[in-house]
Amino acid sequence: MSQHADGEGGLAVADVLPDYADAFPFERFNAMQAEALPAILEREDDVVVSAPTASGKTALAEAAICRTLDAGGTALFLAPLRALTNEKEREWERFEDLGYSVYVVTGERDLNPRRAERADILVMTPEKADSATRKHDSPRYSFVTDVDCCVIDEVHLLDSDRRGSVLEVTISRLRRLCAPRVVALSATMPNAGDVAEWLDAPPECTFTFGEEYRPVPLHADVRTYSHGENAFADKYRRLYRALDIAEPHIRDGGQALVFVSSRQDTVQAATKARDELVERDVPVGARGDYDFHNEASELSNDTLRQSVLDGVGFHHAGLSKADKELVEEWFREGTIQLLFSTSTLAWGVNLPARCVVIRDTKLHDPLEGEVDMSPLDVLQMLGRAGRPGYDDQGYAWVVCDRSEADKYRRLLTEGKDIESRLAADLDAHLNAEIVLGTVRDIDDVMDWLETTFYYVRARSAPEEYASRGDLREQVSERLRSLVDRGFVEREEMSLAPTAVGRLASKFYLGLDTAREFADLAERAADAPDSDGGDAAADPIGERDVLRAVATAAEFDSVSARSDEEDAVAAVLGSTPDLDPGARKVLAILESSMRGTTPTELRSDAWVIRQNALRLLAALRAFLDRFAGARAANLATRIEARIENGISDDAVGLTAVDGVGSGRASQLAADGLRTPADVREAGVSGLVAAGLPEGVAERVHESAADLPNVVVEWGEFPEAVARGENAMREVRVRNVGGDARAGIRVTVNGVEMTGKNAYLGESTVPVGVFGGDADELIYAVEVAFPELPLQLVVAERTVRVA
User: Fold this and answer.
1) Dihedral of CA 313/316/318/321: which sign?
2) Tens of pLDDT along 607-648?
3) Which of 75, 239, 241, 418 could form a disulfide with 65 if both were Cys (CB 3.0 to 4.6 A apart)?
4) Dist. CA 536–CA 539, nearest whole Å
5) Is residue 65 packed enough to be buried (19+ CB in 10 Å), middle (13-18) or exposed (0-12)?
6) What pTM value is reported for the model?
7) Three-state secondary structure string covering 266-295
8) DSSP designation for 553
9) For 762-787, what is the HEC assignment?
């Protein structure tokens, strides 16, 4: 490894890694790669590499993986986006061809523990790795403790507001669990030494490569624009500014990549740009190319199909996988000369262009309102400028308001130190470590803190972190708060999680939200039984559950735009005690339950619904733990209604495999409103209701696998003499599939007894007491906390003679 490497005369891959040469898409390492390779291949230490975008960091990741495989170990690659994990799965078929197994760990339901355990290369996002390390002692996730090398792609994600703290605590936890070698790769970051100190990477394994290592030199600057009369006009002024910048490069045979703030904006900007390029007589498009016409006909998006023929494309996460791949291919080939995209393209696919323009430095976040694009995203996007092998120079521009021009110029010239974002969520992460058992006493708290990047950065830049106070005092204060609010129990020096703390950690809840959910569950548990003998009356109502979710801290930053307020009022009427953001969330949830979300609310509805469903799953667990099966079942039914847009009396149909919102509505319209109705209708009845025979057979079979409760009263008396007492047994049988249930017996609306069981069969003792009432109404209620089935209620009336 002592020989010099530079450009085309660099080290041959076959000389350095002869057994793995076929895993690399090139024959020689470049100068940057060759300089870092000895640290990766010849030492055991952790490695930190900071280098410009497109300089070839991925090859260093692959070299570290090869070294791990050669030693018989398992490598974990942490990718910043799920889209990038899928890309790596495709790219790394090269490793599969060499006989190694690559496994992308995605959602909980899709996890194949056997494949994960046998994989040579695991690929995850930081969030998935966080979940896996939290559950490392379960059989499904034990594989994560066998990692020998962890490669962090884009470690500057540490500075991301939402995701940085997750990456930070996950790496700290992983190092405690199995002490893997860590290879951290990053775009240019001025304080790479802080990351190296955190990871214990020695100076000879810490590399900071400057702009001279960029394969294409970069010219980056700022352009301002003049404001119009409103935000809509401003958007188009910025578009014209972006086209002014891109036009000379397109005329010269180059390409331009323009980043905008939303999916909708990519489409609108592309449509307007097509007209504007025609007006300016810019030579773009391939309408005369018959072969390309045929290729474009494969696109499923009609607007995109017309747009690419004019040389203008758009790319966002809402496009089909096939459409995105075609756009990427055509842009690489030069068939598309102008491409509009959201920021996800900058983190995911490697798609450089001669000219990159950021049109929008602000974006609308459904949960946060209008926010500034993060400096990390800005630098990541601009780094895409310049196509190696095609361009002598890359050009990158930020279009912004005059008042912000200096801020962005400083960012472009000075870069940005990577900061820790742990402080904002310190209490939640400390709670998680107590739940995991990492932190068991007061001494462990500081030991844990010292494993974090936050600790290193606070010592490196004390003046920037001083406003937050002494580190020990900060942590002590957060710990006292955890104890005072019921998340942690403290006995002298020892610490232990409470049930509330465990649930907060399990569902990744903000602690304010967890406390509110626990309080609601406790109120539901303490609520008196209803008067009038209505055994099925809920101790809390539908609106209580929805309000708890709508007012959760996770939605604190949601705002209602002026054009949305009338739509919100039409759904809710008057709810004066809620702020506008919470009213908007509540309106989206209530209208989603009915399947009729107003048009004005649809742009944010999907994101808000997905977050609400996660919160509802958590609230259901709190209700199940502290209030019982009946309250949990209410939350389960609400969750299913929001997801499927169906009435409460038909929501049980969604428990049947193969029945979603459309099929449930179809069956309900034909009078089949419950799984019991489906079982009774039989296959022929389902076919008569409009289901194809094969579907009907599967649906009927699935309905038969759901619980089917039979209450047998046995020798229960019809009358009892006043003053006499007798004990009887009521048998509750389940003649369908097993499920966890809560069984509750009331008399005249007052609970006598209750129990939880997996049905099965259960016997419940019931006392018959001839008291002052002339009539005793006994009710046996069965609630399924995890299934959206209506309560099963059986009643028996006993006269008191």
Assistant:
1) positive
2) 899 999 999 999 999 999 999 999 999 999 999 999 999 988
3) 75
4) 9
5) buried
6) 0.83
7) HHHHHHHHHHHHHHCCCCCCCCCCHHHHHH
8) G
9) EEEEEEEECCCCCEEEEEEEEECCCC
